## 1
Amino acid sequence: MRTELAVIGAGPAGIAAALAAARRGIRVTLVDAAPAPGGQYFRQPAPGLGESVPQHGGRTWTRLRDALAASPVDVRPEHHVWCVERESGGLTVHALLGPEQRASVELCADAVLLATGGYETVLPFPGWTLPGVVTAGGAQALLKGGLVTPGGTVVVAGTGPLLLPVATGLAAAGVRVAALVESTHPARLPRHARALAGKLPEAAGYAARLLRHRVPVLTRHTVVRAHGKDRLTGVTVAALDARGRVRPATERLLPCDALAVGHGMLPHTDLAESLGCRLDGHAVAVDAEQRTDVPGVWAAGEATGVGGAALALAEGHIAGRSVAARLRGTTPDPDAWAPAARVRARGRTAAAALHALHGPPAHWGEGVPDDTVICRCEEVTAGAVREALALGAGDTRTVKLLTRAGMGWCQGRMCAPGVAAVTGSPPAPARRPFARPVPLGVLAAQHHRTTSPEHRPRPEEGSP
Amino acid sequence: MSESLTCDVVVVGAGMTGAACALYAARAGLDVTVVDRGPVAGGTTGAGEGNLLVSDKAPGPELDLALLSLRLWAELAALHGPDVEYDAKGGLVVAETPEAYDGLRAFADAQRAAGVTAEPVPADRLHDVEPRLAPGLPGGVRYPQDAQVMPALAAAHLLRASGARLLTGREVTRVLRARDGAVRGVRTPRGDVHAPAVVNAVGTWGGELASRADVFLPVMPRRGFVLVTEPLPPRIRHKVYAADYVADVAGETADLLTSPVVEGTAAGPVLVGASRERVGFDRSLSLPAVRALAAGATRLFPFLSDVRALRTYAGFRPYLPDHLPAIGPDRRAPGLFHACGHEGAGIGLAPGTGLLIAQALTGRTPELDLAPFRPDRFPRPAKEAAP
């Protein structure tokens, strides 16, 4: 099928872009892997669970949901996009359907907006693979999606702005939060106070809720070990010194049956990379209109740099208006979206400050013992990574070649930050030509179709 | 920080071929330094399947080198087998038409005369040899000498076994020549390494390194994609490929050629090759190429239709116009030796290449006649300016 704009990802950025473009007469198709739009931020409880209003941005969500329902946007849930292909006639979005992901459909579009969001990073520590240890985002998804809580007594740990809503959300759902363990030092906050001014009311709200639920907050602390045989029974936490190393004799045990841990987020850039879009660090590089450097491809939201829902909404809105103008052959007037541009500017400043504030602890890799599994898919330990370094691997790519770390099902999405930490090099964006595993039968069928005589004769491929 | 080192030989390139050259040179008693602009196995070595094959080679100098190399690989496997995931799995070449089967058997007859073990497998026995093969294939030939290693591990472990000094992350900007033309070492941004002999083992960049010694060697990249599936229990016993692969290897076209090459790995994933295109060093995904690979693989093994590809990657085979590598001393630059241009066979041919280079370095008579591999066999194109 054919559309003018294909939006990939129905979170805040994707929905805002779809609405902005559709309002200006563009035919929009909005695809997402989940059964319903909303993304992680506006994730809704499964139908039938009663509670229909999520914790986050209730009114904003109601407004977006109703606008989407009233709009002509063609919403396609359960589309798992595995590749976007650039051809002479435009762009083709390839998506696997439904939970089975066996059949693939093609969506041809004049423009594509990548609103693919971000994913959480977790650094490894002894015991992090025990049942009962979940990512902070995973705990939040459980809570939002089904109002399930990961345990009766939970420790929330790591670093980053996600930990606050996770801790308060769990506490509000009746879970005992034994501690919020944040590795950042609060004394570093004033340095970023101006940039974060807009975030202060939100932060104050979380602080009040933590207080109300009597959640102990341990700053400049980290989880050094998770305990348990078959599942989690507790965690050892310790204080960090000014250089980010564990201070001796500060360890203490916190009994718990769940640990929600996260060390920040990274943008999803797989589709952008196989399209050949330029990256800026880990994020898709965009111009003032949210255009990538590949003609016909826009990007918005966490994919262009992790910064939260308000920033994503603003970027999506700008992208949608830009697409609408460009597809009609006109140059958009940036003054028309000045309010969104102001939100975007503030959001990016705050995001940069939060990023600087919540860097993962330095020297993390040094503290990981040899027998800790770093890559779960391929069961590669920290010791094996160090052995590869001794064999002459100087970077994460060679470590991967020599150890298979990152070659399994998750393709390094889970373990790449940990491998980089132990390797002692900065994590590099991975090259993943397929954003999802794709059945060979799907590729083979596309070969037979695209090389059949009526489609495109390719005589040089005739013999095999 | 700049430093100056002195040794007997500088091997440029820390891939499989450089590792083998370092190993055999060190065994011959030379003090070896290996220099690479990247890490170990950072080029074609890190992008290949690790094929050690005689099956795809017609009688001639390359087959002689392959037979020598496979013998050496078996020796190396006795020392390092598990570390390098050596697997003497054997190859199975299958024909998809009766005419192809006839051609395949005639090819095998000629190979047998040159010392290759090649066993015809008629249609009714194919599934005893490879149970998951598609039905209805007219027959194949089994090559028990074919084997496989994990190439990056092989390069890293053989480098370590060589005891050579390893300098990674240093690009050779210049091959140093004395006034009389003799090689006297290499220049890197972090200092010179002085030696009376330099070995060019940089694979696809061999032509560029040659030009940094002011000699001409037309090594060019030929791109290939590999599809990697989800891990599976062992279901494919051999390296299995279709008979047209042999024709494609020798093919002259710049266009996309694909013929199915399918094999399991120790770690579980099935590897699917092999595409060939001359497109320079373009690494970007080509859906037409990987679609053709998938179509070929599912034709040989229908069960693969439901198996998922987790990833795909491109590599660049270093090829020379006559599809033979450049091995041996370069008369145009005394002290310069070449060991590159092995196209898609470099892992398999590495030990033989390393041994021949070590013999040449130490003035011994090489095990094989080096004449067909002479590095100066390609005249510099008249129109081309000096590199």
Note: The domain at 2-119+266-332 of chain A is CATH 3.50.50.60 (FAD/NAD(P)-binding domain).
## 2
Amino acid sequence: MSERLTRDRLAEIIAADIPSGSFVNLGIGQPTLVSNYFSSDQKVTLHTENGMLGMGPVAVGDEIDEDLINAGKIPITELPGASYFHHGDSFGIMRGGHLDICVLGAFQVSATGDLANWHTGDPGAIPAVGGAMDLATGAKEIFVMMNLFTKTGESKLVPACTYPLTGIGCVTRVYTDVAIFEILSAGVRVRETYGMEFTELQSRVDVPLLPPEN
Amino acid sequence: MPTLTTSAADAVAQIPDGATILIGGFGKAGQPVELIEALLDHGASDLTVVNNNAGNGEHGLAALIGAGRVRKIVCSFPRQSDSQLFDERFRAGLIELELVPQGNLAERIRAAGAGIGGFFTPTGYGTLLAEGKETRMIDGRGYVLESPIRAEYALIAAHTADPLGNLTYRKTARNFGPIMATAATHTIVQVSNVVPVGQIDPEVVVTPGIFVDVIVDLHQTGLGNGVPTDAYTSGKVSA
């Protein structure tokens, strides 16, 4: 049996699943790792919400320019063929359905693809939504990248989200350290497991799972 | 025809207490720091500020919030690792927060500038941020009615201006500038560079001068302040 996936290995798998020529937005945090694993002949164009297509790698040394940052406000670079545009157009790109795939982190994903990733609902928490709702609603497909279990062992794939929602029925795939799930109209299918047999996975996830197709 | 000045203080001197101000920038990129600091010195208070964030670090918008000048902030992403000045005031109940998904924030500003009375957007449908708002099913999909965000003032940063107010921006510092310029009664822009009329290729103008009221020339190129208007068009004064 294979081992649980590291974040980098998971990022590599997600990158390989993104079709050539796609326009992609990577959420801040873990999903950013995916950009390290695109092959040059994949011709993926990265969109960043703060007004750019053709985002390049993180800037280092002399490349750092305070006018050129990504959604996480980290200095980045531009690739040949990049373009800049204002926020109205940038979110029109999302809302208008022009992005093929967005990879986002999550607190919870429901069996029907509802996403919760912006607010824990704790009374002391200061909520911050950023572009998450626009991406969840606008991209043609939403891939979630997350650890399957919380630090206390609860599954983050749930029958219904208990945290406040980001979007309804928007998630198409869930990539985790333990398994990859596809959210289908027929239910949640496990594509592959890592470091855990299907039966054990099912015993720890309170969502009926369809076994991997061989 | 906009006013051209080298004084950020003069540019913000008319802003009264209680004003609603659109402030450009995404984090620090495109944030009109000199205008905000002039506003801080000017002393206007009880402000409603619209910005993507609620200040980063200790300067600019963060300092304005930290000084207690902002009564309400309308933004998408207030809390960050360096938003401590906002966090303190929010937790103490000293600042009101209207949280808006980033694309709805942008479109509400754009709508104001374009004379749109409201629009139906799918973003936020079925979430806490749409509670109490009118909704409609359109072609089987849920939408939320959102209203324009207009303001008396916009403070933005651009890269280059000509004395007619035509603006270009630089890289991701463009962000909210072009839409905010359209949505305020008085748009005040700080620029790194002013060039004579005719020196910006009309094909690359991002914000046409019709949207700009005051240009603050940070580079002090000498095109403003006492230079006769006809000098702007003569091409004799170079940047």
Note: DSSP finds seven helices and twelve strands in chain B.
